[in-house]
């Protein structure tokens, strides 16, 4: 008995030692708070663990010079909130209109402190459950058949407190500085600690390692006070307006390109940083050499015993000594806290700074571990906006919908419409949807056709990388084919060396829509849901497998795809060809004529006129239609064929006008013009 009591007490103490939640969200940055919002709205059991005393701690330090490069366009000329999010790159998604970033800053490129205030208010006003000052130092697995995935995630913080959860959402971002080690790298200052006071660089010669926005941001800050600035990186400069990738160099920071090309002493160089070496002379000046020179020199004799490149090549580009060398190489994901049992592995090549994840944002090594926010950018690195707030706010919502279906049996949200509304539904979404616009080529709207193509089911912003798993991941069925609506740039319009300002760069005619260069809607039609093999073997640079039919809506200078002839008519005809049906809208008179002359009515007449639905007629509406040329101006007659007397009371005349049908031969019936 004593033994049983002791064991029971031990088990109770062990259970109490773990704070259990269904969901653990690691990090209270933008992605962590966005995930918490959706979990809270769904009534789920969750906790957010944040190492700092407040949310968004990254933005309390970075960018160092405090100007964000995410745009804050406060005015668009439209009141549609979904459309306006296309040009608001800082707001998170919520139901609260007070939590729009335009209320926190009036600047197009806001100050970073405004983002800190915004995230603090987002967490406080929505009452999100965040535990601050909780630094998770270790994450491991605990096998248990009762858990959702056969294991629990156990997280330990700096105070040895443990948390247990069934699903782990990692939203810590990438915050560990990228460091390149080479001889003399101890003389290099890091972006994270270098002075931001321009006067500290007055009259100095500076070398910057790196070529991203942090490197150019640093150069922009000191451009007017230095002797000259050199910048070296292994890759050439990538301009965001050429690559259409917002993570590449933005115009707000590119002053150094002006001074370089206009020969004002500053310059850019390409070279592998690992091949470099830095030697410091007696005056504290820093000399650039190459590693193999250093390996063959007598370093004990100081700089006098070191061979420098200019000793053999007297016009060597970096032969002038530098006062300071600054490292601006970006950040990478922190893998150190994850136990080997989680198999959190870095990506390959230029994605090595991110963990390996599936297109569903789930870890390739551990089921139930999802990566959100900037750290999930490997899915669309250098392609779309998934590494930035205006992109991952939508991918975070997509992950939440996947989890709702997997763990709680809540299917992906959808709306069922009659087939006659297909064209209108697509046109509405491509003109206002922000998720499709920002996460182009990554998120897509899905139209699932019902049997006999009389209805369709509309799903919004589904990850195209898991299209083959749609029925499993969403709880929806695709029995009769589907349309996929996605936004794309032209195939050959984006790239490091592309001239995106060439003459005749835009297409304006519908018949040439497939040659559109700028962002535009593309509709893929599949008779059957593509298989995983078809998705895997899709053509290079295609976001989707080869479809049974494809339609490009021609690009538009105003990104307003509502032109009747250029945009809507070609789309409707494409849909009609795929469905072998007529998607036009008709007046009642046309439907009446079709009922007398055809074996099968168009869907609009079947679902409207034949069911006695539609717009109720009136004399004012009839006159308007006649004036617009949409209806024949029939004389109102009685059943004998005589015209009605002019003195007929208005109420009786209106009754006859609404209900008397002129007795004419059938071949004289003239149907109304189709909408």
Automatic annotation (TrEMBL):
Pfam annotation, one family: Pyr_redox_3
InterPro entries: Auxin_biosynth/cation_transpt (IPR050982), FAD/NAD-bd_sf (IPR036188)
Keyword hit for Transferase: no
Cofactor dependency: FAD
GO MF entry, a single one: monooxygenase activity
Keyword tags: Endoplasmic reticulum, FAD, Flavoprotein, Glycoprotein, Oxidoreductase, Signal
TM stretches of this protein: none
GO CC terms of this entry: endoplasmic reticulum lumen
Top-level taxon of the source organism: Eukaryota
GO BP terms, alphabetized: ERAD pathway
Range of residues in the leader sequence: 1-17
Gene3D superfamilies: FAD/NAD(P)-binding domain (3.50.50.60)
SUPFAM superfamilies in alphabetical order: FAD/NAD(P)-binding domain
Membership in a protein family: Belongs to the FOXRED2 family.
Assembly mode: Interacts with SEL1L. May interact with OS9 and DNAJC10. Interacts with TXNDC16.
PANTHER family associated with the record: FAD-DEPENDENT OXIDOREDUCTASE DOMAIN-CONTAINING PROTEIN 2, FLAVIN-BINDING MONOOXYGENASE-LIKE PROTEIN (AFU_ORTHOLOGUE AFUA_4G09220)
Function of the protein: Probable flavoprotein which may function in endoplasmic reticulum associated degradation (ERAD). May bind non-native proteins in the endoplasmic reticulum and target them to the ubiquitination machinery for subsequent degradation.
Listed name of the protein: FAD-dependent oxidoreductase domain-containing protein 2
Native organism: Odontophorus gujanensis (marbled wood quail)
Gene name in the database record: Foxred2
């Amino acid at each position: 008995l004593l033994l049983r009591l002791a064991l029971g007490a031990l088990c109770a103490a062990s259970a109490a030692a773990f704070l259990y939640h269904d969901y653990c969200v690691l990090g209270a940055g933008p992605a962590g708070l966005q995930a918490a919002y959706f979990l809270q709205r769904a009534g789920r059991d969750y906790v957010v663990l944040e190492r700092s005393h407040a949310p968004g701690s990254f933005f309390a330090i970075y960018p160092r010079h405090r100007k964000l490069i995410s745009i804050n366009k406060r005015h668009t000329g439209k009141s549609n909130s979904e459309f306006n999010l296309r040009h608001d790159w800082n707001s998170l998604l919520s139901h609260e209109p007070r939590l729009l970033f335009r209320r926190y800053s009036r600047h197009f490129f806001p100050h970073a402190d405004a983002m800190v205030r915004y995230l603090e208010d987002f967490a406080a006003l929505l009452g999100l459950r965040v535990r601050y000052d909780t630094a998770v130092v270790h994450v491991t697995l605990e096998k248990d058949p009762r858990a959702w995935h056969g294991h629990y995630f156990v997280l330990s913080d700096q105070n040895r407190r443990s948390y247990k959860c069934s699903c782990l959402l990692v939203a810590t971002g990438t915050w560990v500085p990228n460091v390149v080690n080479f001889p003399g790298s101890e003389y290099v200052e890091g972006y994270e600690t270098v002075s931001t006071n321009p006067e500290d660089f007055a009259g100095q010669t500076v070398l910057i390692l790196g070529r991203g926005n942090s490197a150019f941001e640093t150069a922009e800050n000191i451009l007017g006070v230095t002797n000259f600035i050199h910048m070296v990186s292994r890759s050439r400069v990538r301009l965001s307006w050429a690559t259409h990738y917002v993570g590449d160099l933005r115009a707000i920071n590119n002053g150094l390109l002006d001074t370089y090309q206009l020969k004002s002493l500053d310059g850019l160089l390409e070279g592998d940083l690992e091949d470099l070496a830095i030697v410091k002379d007696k005056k504290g000046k820093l000399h650039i050499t190459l590693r193999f020179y250093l390996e063959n020199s007598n370093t004990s004799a100081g700089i006098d015993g070191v061979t420098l490149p200019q000793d053999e090549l007297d016009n060597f580009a970096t032969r002038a000594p530098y006062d300071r060398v600054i490292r601006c190489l970006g950040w990478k994901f922190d893998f150190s806290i994850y136990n080997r049992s989680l198999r959190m592995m870095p990506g390959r090549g230029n994605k090595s700074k991110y963990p390996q994840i599936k297109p569903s944002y789930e870890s390739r090594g551990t089921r139930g571990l999802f990566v959100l926010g900037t750290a999930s950018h490997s899915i669309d690195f250098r392609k779309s906006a998934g590494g930035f707030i205006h992109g991952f706010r939508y991918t975070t919502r997509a992950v939440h919908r996947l989890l709702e279906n997997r763990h709680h049996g809540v299917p992906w949200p959808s709306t069922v419409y009659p087939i006659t509304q297909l064209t209108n539904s697509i046109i509405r979404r491509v003109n206002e949807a922000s998720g499709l616009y920002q996460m182009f080529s990554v998120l897509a709207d899905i139209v699932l056709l019902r049997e006999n193509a009389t209805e369709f089911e509309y799903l919004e912003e589904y990850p195209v990388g898991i299209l083959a798993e749609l029925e499993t991941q969403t709880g929806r069925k695709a029995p009769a084919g589907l349309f996929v609506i996605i936004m794309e740039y032209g195939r050959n319009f984006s790239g490091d060396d592309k001239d995106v300002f060439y003459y005749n760069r835009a297409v304006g005619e519908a018949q040439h829509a497939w040659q559109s260069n700028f962002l535009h809607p593309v509709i893929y039609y599949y008779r059957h849901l593509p298989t995983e093999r078809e998705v895997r073997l899709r053509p290079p640079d295609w976001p989707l497998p080869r479809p049974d039919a494809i339609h490009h809506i021609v690009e538009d200078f105003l990104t307003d795809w509502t032109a009747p002839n250029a945009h809507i008519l070609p789309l409707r005809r494409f849909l009609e060809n795929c469905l072998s049906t007529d998607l036009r809208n008709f007046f009642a008179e046309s439907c009446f004529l079709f009922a007398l002359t055809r074996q099968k009515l168009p869907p609009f007449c079947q679902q409207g006129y034949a069911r006695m639905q539609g717009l109720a007629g009136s004399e004012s509406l009839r006159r308007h239609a006649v004036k617009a040329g949409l209806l024949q101006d029939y004389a109102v007659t009685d059943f004998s064929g005589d015209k009605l007397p002019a003195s007929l009371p208005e109420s009786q005349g209106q009754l006859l006008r609404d209900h008397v049908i002129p007795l004419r031969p059938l071949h004289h019936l003239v149907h109304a013009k189709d909408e």
